[in-house]
Specification:
The chain is about 45% helix and about 10% strand. The protein is of the alpha/beta class. The chain folds into two domains: about 1-15 and about 85-215, HAD superfamily/HAD-like (Rossmann fold, 3-Layer(aba) Sandwich), CATH 3.40.50.1000; about 15-85. Strands 3-2-1-4-5-6 form a six-stranded parallel beta sheet. Strand 4, helix 8 (about 170-180) and strand 5 (about 185) form a beta-alpha-beta unit. It comes from Rhizobium esperanzae.
Length: about 220
């Protein structure tokens, strides 16, 4: 039996445009210089307050970052409706999830810097909620790369970290997996480069979702 833990943004769904537009409006509201798209992509995966602090060159969260986080959260669903943007699945993701969800030797979960509400929207939009039996979000655990998201999913499912595979597109996913004692698979279609993923502990790189399947044999 293995536990497959998927990151969401940049791994299952392409949400960068939605995140960036919400971030752009938030920074504008607080009189901050408009962030570049590359700056937004670089922080996807972190919990929101830490991400906003990092985008302003700080390692630690200050009160204004907390205020900006609250504003971002209030805007997110509005921007989602404005853009009629449903965070589309990357090509091949649905087929891969459908394949592994039918196996008796695999459990599927999510570990994400999204809020629990944000993850729920994605799961319901793409009818994935029936496949994912465990999840940890920014509402539940410290931000990646802290290992808590992985270790808590392991505890809830009764799995060992050694039998757990974390699949993600960010360096934080790789670092989190290694810190928890799990295997890390980086995906090449997300927001970090393959070189960055390898440098941060990826045990393997998947260039298409169907390549993930071989790691569950």
């Amino acid at each position: 039996m293995k536990l497959a833990l998927f990151d969401c943004d940049g791994t299952l769904v392409d949400s960068a445009a939605l995140i960036h537009e919400t971030m752009r409006r938030t920074f504008d509201q607080f009189g901050k210089p408009e962030p570049r798209f590359e700056d937004t992509k670089a922080i996807i995966g972190l919990s929101l307050d830490i991400a906003i602090a990092r985008m302003q060159g700080r390692q630690h969260v200050e009160q204004q970052d907390i205020d900006m986080t609250a504003h971002y959260k209030s805007l997110f669903s509005i921007v989602r409706q404005d853009l009629d943007y449903k965070e589309p699945l990357f090509p091949g993701i649905r087929e891969m999830i459908d394949t592994i969800s039918g196996r008796d030797d695999l459990l599927i979960g999510a570990v994400t810097g999204k809020s629990r509400r944000g993850l729920k929207l994605v799961m319901e939009t793409h009818a994935f909620d029936k496949h994912f039996i465990v999840a940890r979000t920014a509402d539940d655990c410290p931000s990646k790369p802290h290992p808590a998201m992985v270790t808590e999913c392991c505890d809830e499912t009764g799995m060992n970290a050694a039998d757990t595979i974390v699949i993600g597109d960010a360096v934080y996913d790789m670092q989190m997996a290694k810190a928890a004692g799990a295997k890390a698979i980086g995906v090449a279609w997300g927001y970090a480069s393959v070189d960055e993923l390898i440098a941060n502990g990826a045990d393997a790189i998947a260039y298409h979702p169907n390549e993930i399947l071989r790691h569950f044999s």
